[in-house]
User: Which sequence fits this backbone?
C-alpha cells in the first residue's frame, strides 16, 4: 500500500501491522493528551506538586530525556568535528533520538509552566542571573539545531528526494552540517551544565550544594560529562532494541564497538570524577554546613544508602568496566546489559538531583517530605514516550535512517 | 530581549547572555538562509534532477 514511500532495497512489515502498532501506541498517546488538556484547562492543581515540590516528576523527566538525548550532540561532535567517520552509520538514529528527547523536554516544560501562552516571557523578559534562563535559551536553540539535522533525513525519503529542490536542500544542508553540529555541541555543553549547576547553587540545601570553580559548581561539569557518557548508551540501547524488534541487523559491529568503547572511557572518567565529588561533598562540604552523610539517607521510607550504591557502582562502575573491555563489547547480552544499566544510572542520578533534593529536610524541625505523582503527571510523562515510539516507527519505515541496513540484510 | 527593551541594562551579564543567544540564532539563521538560497540556485541550474 505504501511501498512507494519505503526506502529502496529494504523490507518492512505489512502496512496493516504497522497501522495496528500506531493505533495501540496512539491510544497511550491520547491518554497523555487527555491528561495534558486537563492540566492546561484546570491548572496545576491536577498535580501533586506543592510548596515542597516545585520541581517534581516532570523536571526529573526533563533532565532524564535531556541526558539520554545527549547522544545526538556527542556523536555529532565525534562525527563532524573530531572526524570519527564510522559514526556516520549511526548518527541519523542519534539525531532522531535527540530530536524526540528534546521535543519531549519542551513539551513537558510547556505543561509544567502552567501558562504556556507566556513561555516567550523567558526570552523577552530574561533574568540573566538565572541558570534556568540559560537552559531555556540553549534548549530552544539546540532543538532548532536538531530540527535542522533531522530535516535532510526527511527530505531523503524516496519520493521527496525526487523533487529537485528538496534533493538540493538535503545535499546543501549536509555540506554545512559541521557548523550546525559545532553549534549544537556548544549549546549542549552549556545547558547540560546549567541543569547540573541549578541544584548545586542552592546553598540552603546541603544535600545539593557543591563547591566549584568561578560561577560553576562541579555538578555543572559532571552533568555535561555524564550526558556525553550516557547519551550514546541510550542511542546504542534503542538501536539494539530496534534490531531485536525488527529482527534485522541495522548497524555493523565495528560501529557499535567504537561507540561503546568511547562511551566506556567517557563513563569511566565520569564515574571517577563523580566518586571524588561525592567523597569531597560527604567529608567536607556537607559537614561544613552542619550535616552528616547518613542524615541524607536515613529516617525516611525510601531514600537509603542503596541509592548511592546503585547509581555509582551498579549503574556506573559495572557498565563502564563492561564497555571498556573488548570481550564485554563483543558479547551482545553483556553490551545490552551495560547500556541498559547506564541509562538507569543517569536517570537515577537526575532523580536524586531533582527529587531527593526536595525530600531531604532542611531545618532541624522538619521531616522528610515524600511525593507520589498524580495520574495526570504520570500520563503526561508517558505521553512523550508514546510520541517517541510513533516517531521512531514512522521514521524507520519511511526514511533511510540506517545506511548499512541494505548491505547487512541482503 | 533587545537593547531597546526598557529592561535592558548595558552590563557584561546582559551582553554575554543575550549576545550568546543572538550569536547562536544568527549562525542557525544564516546557515539555513545559505542552504535555501543555494538550493534555489542549484535547482534553477537544473541540478538534482532525479534520474
Assistant:
Amino acid at each position: 500500500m505504501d511501498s512507494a514511500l519505503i526506502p529502496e532495497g529494504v523490507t518492512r512489515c505489512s502496512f496493516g501491522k504497522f497501522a495496528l502498532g500506531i493505533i495501540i501506541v496512539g491510544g497511550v498517546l491520547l491518554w497523555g493528551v487527555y491528561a495534558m488538556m486537563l492540566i492546561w484547562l484546570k491548572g496545576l492543581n491536577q498535580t501533586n506538586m506543592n510548596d515542597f515540590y516545585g520541581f517534581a516528576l516532570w523536571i526529573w523527566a526533563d533532565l532524564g530525556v535531556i541526558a539520554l538525548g545527549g547522544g545526538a550532540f556527542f556523536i555529532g561532535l565525534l562525527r563532524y568535528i573530531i572526524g570519527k567517520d564510522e559514526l556516520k552509520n549511526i548518527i541519523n538514529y542519534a539525531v532522531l533520538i535527540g530530536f524526540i528527547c528534546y521535543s519531549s523536554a519542551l513539551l513537558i516544560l510547556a505543561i509544567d509552566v502552567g501558562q504556556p501562552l507566556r513561555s516567550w516571557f523567558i526570552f523577552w523578559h530574561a533574568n540573566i542571573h538565572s541558570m534556568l534562563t540559560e537552559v531555556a535559551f540553549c534548549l530552544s536553540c539546540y532543538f532548532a539545531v536538531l530540527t535542522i539535522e533531522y530535516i535532510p533525513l526527511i527530505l531523503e525519503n524516496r519520493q521527496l528526494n525526487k523533487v529537485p529542490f528538496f534533493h538540493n536542500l538535503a545535499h546543501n544542508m549536509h555540506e554545512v552540517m559541521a557548523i550546525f553540529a559545532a553549534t549544537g555541541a556548544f549549546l549542549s555543553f552549556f545547558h547540560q551544565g546549567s541543569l547540573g549547576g541549578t541544584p548545586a547553587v542552592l546553598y540552603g540545601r546541603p544535600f545539593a550544594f557543591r563547591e566549584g570553580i568561578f560561577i560553576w559548581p562541579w555538578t555543572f561539569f559532571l552533568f555535561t560529562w555524564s550526558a556525553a557518557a550516557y547519551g550514546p548508551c541510550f542511542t546504542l540501547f534503542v538501536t539494539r532494541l530496534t534490531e531485536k524488534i525488527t529482527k534485522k541487523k541495522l548497524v555493523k559491529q565495528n560501529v557499535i564497538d567504537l561507540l561503546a568503547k568511547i562511551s566506556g572511557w567517557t563513563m569511566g572518567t565520569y564515574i571517577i570524577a563523580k566518586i571524588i565529588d561525592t567523597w569531597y561533598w560527604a567529608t567536607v562540604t556537607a559537614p561544613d554546613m552542619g550535616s552528616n552523610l547518613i542524615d541524607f539517607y536515613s529516617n525516611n521510607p525510601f531514600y537509603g544508602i542503596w541509592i548511592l550504591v546503585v547509581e555509582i557502582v551498579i549503574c556506573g562502575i559495572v557498565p563502564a568496566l563492561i564497555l571498556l573491555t573488548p570481550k564485554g563489547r563483543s558479547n551482545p547480552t553483556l553490551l545490552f546489559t551495560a547500556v541498559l544499566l547506564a541509562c538507569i544510572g543517569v536517570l537515577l542520578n537526575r532523580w536524586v538531583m531533582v527529587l531527593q533534593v526536595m525530600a531531604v529536610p532542611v531545618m532541624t524541625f522538619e521531616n522528610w517530605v515524600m511525593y507520589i505523582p498524580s495520574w495526570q503527571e504520570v500520563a503526561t510523562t508517558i505521553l512523550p514516550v508514546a510520541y517517541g515510539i510513533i516517531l521512531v516507527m514512522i521514521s524507520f519505515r519511511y526514511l533511510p535512517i540506517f545506511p548499512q541496513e541494505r548491505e547487512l540484510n541482503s | 530581549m533587545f537593547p531597546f527593551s526598557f529592561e535592558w541594562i548595558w552590563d557584561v551579564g546582559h551582553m554575554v547572555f543575550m549576545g550568546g543567544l543572538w550569536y547562536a540564532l544568527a549562525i542557525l539563521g544564516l546557515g539555513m538562509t545559505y542552504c535555501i538560497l543555494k538550493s534555489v540556485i542549484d535547482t534553477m541550474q537544473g541540478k538534482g534532477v532525479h534520474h
